[in-house]
Amino acid sequence: MTIVDTKIKHGDASDGILGGRLSRIDGPAKITGSADYAMEHFPEGMVHAVIIDSTIASGRVLAIDAAAAEAYPGVLLVLTPDNAIAIKTATDWTGAPPPAVPFEPFAREITFNGQHIAAVIAETFEQATAAAALVKVTYDKTVPISTFDDPRAGEGYPIDMMTKEWGDAEAALATSPVRIKQEYRTPREYNVPIEPHGLIAQWTGDMLTLWEPSQWIDGMSRTYAEWFDIPFENVRMLSPYIGGGFGSKALPTRYGAVAAIAAKMLDRPVKLAITRPQTFTAFGGRPATRQTIALGATREGKLLSILHRGDNETSMNDVAVEPLGSVISIMYATPNFSSRQNLVPVNTVKPGALRAPGENPSAFGIECAIDELAYEVGIDPLDIRLLNYAEEDPSANKPWSTRRLREAYAAGADAFGWAKRNPRPRSMRDGKQLIGYGVAAGTYPVRRTPGEAMVRILSNGTIEVASSGIDMGQGTYTILAQTAAEAIGVPVETVMVKLGDSSLPRAPVAGGSQLANLMTGAVHKAALAARDELIGIAINHPNSPFRDLQANTLTIEAGRISSPRDTGAGIGIAEVMRRTGRDRIEALRNTLPEEHQNAKDHFRNFTTIATMKSPTEGDYSLHSWCVHFVEVRVDVDFGTVRVARMVSALDSGRLYNPKLAESQWKGGIIMGIGQALLEEGLVDDRYGRVMNNNLGDYLVPTNADIPDLKVISVGIPDTHASVLGGKAVGELAIVGVAPAIANAVYHATGVRVRNLPITLEKLI
Amino acid sequence: MTNRTTIHLEINGQNQALEVEPRVTLLDALRDHLQLTGTKKGCDQGQCGACTVHVDGERVLACLTLAAQAEGRKITTVEGLSEPGGELHPVQAAFLDHDAFQCGYCTPGQIMSAVACIREGHAGSDDDIREYMSGNLCRCGAYPHIVEAIREAAKVMS
């Protein structure tokens, strides 16, 4: 349409509006209490649902006696498998067609403790809660298999697609001059966002409105539509703010179906807020894992073979893979490699995704094992990492797009003062405190799904950006405003961003650390299209002040259009819009490939994960990288471990907003400190019950657990990874924290703890 | 337990009369009955601090307080910390500057705790701040920035 030389900036992190340290634009709403989270809406006539969960882990429900609850004041309905309306099974997130059987959100056959079996709906929350306690359930109990350590759990079954092998790992190991072999374990870990899960469901005819915290508006909306056999467009999901998710708010849940069923049956809006204890069983966290790692090496510490076998717990009827081979297969160069993984079914809720699923425990294994090898051959733990540095992806045999890990080691070691470390364990001490220095690396892949965005230039010169993508604290609102502001050439204050609403243009899941890259790409494309149209109008419209200038090199800066032939201050966008009689310019753009620009592929792209590209699709292997340096102090008498300080150097490519990216990195590091020292779902073997299902007993880090954290960005723009040069941020920084701490604890004490968390009884 | 009772609360300088059951917590009274949803429900068990409000100037967990216990008392919530559209409270401003939050859900509780922490004289050192802010959990992990924000706000407020 126009001949415009559009300049796209691909500068470093300090270049331009995008890349600036803007405070988050949704911040004022959050600090004044005016941010409206999904569950904070009050539709007329709203009633309250409380879910009743099984108190056994295995067996079946014989009878539900609801008489007392039904007679309780205010109770409208006791919903059970016997009276709930039937709904259909929906397509799963991979897009696999569902079986033609009803979907039953309540269980009759019990496979874990905490399984939903009924619900009470009453006029008030207090009435529903009290009445739920009156429902009597009788069971036929069988003995549960509580964990994968129960001998009856067996070895589980292999997941063949997890197998990665090259060379002959067993033979090479057998002939290696140096061999070590150990088992590394991580317990069940939970997401515990501070906003508990739940939803408000309201029917208006065959339109379903859902206020539900969601990491994936379009995927979840599709499920609700298929459950109730209504068109996708009939589901409106609203999730403008999300009080944390960490992987736990991406998929529809059974309680969601319960709320929507109850709302339909009662023809009233239903609010269903699950309790904090229920957040441990209404969906799964990270499954327990165990890995056996055997390393074969030369006497100098050069790897000859890696032999890896991993297991994770899954639920009785579901396949939930925590990919334990993900980091061990790419971190180091080795001529021989073998990794296989089994799943072991136990009586638990289906495990879910928790920050860096797979990478996190995988790194715990290999990054501890390489540390052990360093001691075995007597070289520095940093040196052994450099000695075995993978110059290309050893698994995919492709070059890295960018791998600034060597730079990260150097920058981190320097800032930390690694050179001052006495290599001998238990050699550094301050009074009653044993001091240990530890290091470990981490990585997270770059995942890619096409995105979509609408960018509007309004008559008053302001810009509107719209997407169903979400912001759960990653900074989506802010970086999309920065993206549009830079692409069009307006002050960022004039950009308004609308997110978290299924009526807006589509977005894939906010998971796999992909959203920032794909949404900045989509917004950038839409914003440039809107800018092109604006420039075109300015050049061509008979009433445009620029028409007579015959200029095809108009520029827009700070919201003003100017021509190089015009020495004035230019003309504001609003003025050009007014003179040319335009009330708005709209550009809806997606980043789907040309061959997928059709309704079917479009729908599939945003409502399934089928089109998400793997990090090795294409010519390069795309990953973010990091290294953590930790100083721990261990009380010599009591074995208490404190993280005294940490320095992390990270390569996430270009940072769209370093202030917010640093916050995400630190958040991941802090969650990693919790994983290393505190977090563990404790299962009562008799009842298959998670005993510490609350925030007083499932310990997450508090402010007093966390020292000053230094983070250093060593990334450079990587345009193989994304249009604007960013790589993964959100899930990167937790990876490698736990092994760095475990390695530091070994250095401090001489005690190697291979099963997380590192609690004092393991040290004394 | 379904007899309603009238409770009088002074919330953010305004007198409010509420008809609630005696078992209604202050937290649910604020959120569900007055639609003051700035005060957050994170656990409903007194373990996370997201529901922290001030009752007669002291920080209190609204989920462990029955609304009736606050009869006649002065309650301040995050909505009452600064005038709508007016200047931010120094703690709010510092939280924004230092990016002392991500998802924002624990933030009102953190801010109410922080104001009290400074007022109590417990913001004299970073270690003090960490200790006296440890009743407020933040799963996004904003703690280092919360400490920075409180350190700065304490200077402004003194």
Please provide a written account of the structure:
With 764 residues, chain A is of the alpha+beta class. Chain A has three domains: 169 residues, 2-Layer Sandwich (Aldehyde Oxidoreductase, domain 4); 174 residues, 2-Layer Sandwich (Aldehyde Oxidoreductase, domain 4); 306 residues, Aldehyde Oxidoreductase, domain 4 (2-Layer Sandwich), CATH 3.30.365.10. Chain A has 15 helices and 32 strands. A seven-stranded mixed beta sheet of chain A has the order 3-7-1-15-12-13-14. In chain A, strands 9, 10, 11, 16, 17 and 18 form a six-stranded mixed beta sheet that branches. In chain A, strands 19-20-28-29-32 form a five-stranded mixed beta sheet, sandwiched between helices. In chain A, helix 7 runs parallel beside helix 15, helix 10 runs parallel beside helix 11 and helix 14 crosses helix 15. Chain B folds into two domains: 76 residues, Roll (Ubiquitin-like (UB roll)), CATH 3.10.20.30; 68 residues, [2Fe-2S]-binding domain (DNA polymerase, domain 1, Orthogonal Bundle). Chain B is built from five helices and five strands, in the order ββαβββαααα. The longest helix of chain B has 15 residues. Chain B is globular, with a radius of gyration of 15 Å. At the A-B interface, helix 1, helix 3 and helix 14 of A face helix 1, helix 2, helix 3, helix 4 and helix 5 of B.
Regions with little confidence, pLDDT below 50 for 5+ residues of chain B: none
- Gross morphology of chain A is globular
Could you describe the largest sheet of chain B, including whether it forms a barrel?
Answer: 5 strands, mixed
Euclidean distance between termini CA atoms of chain B: 47 Å
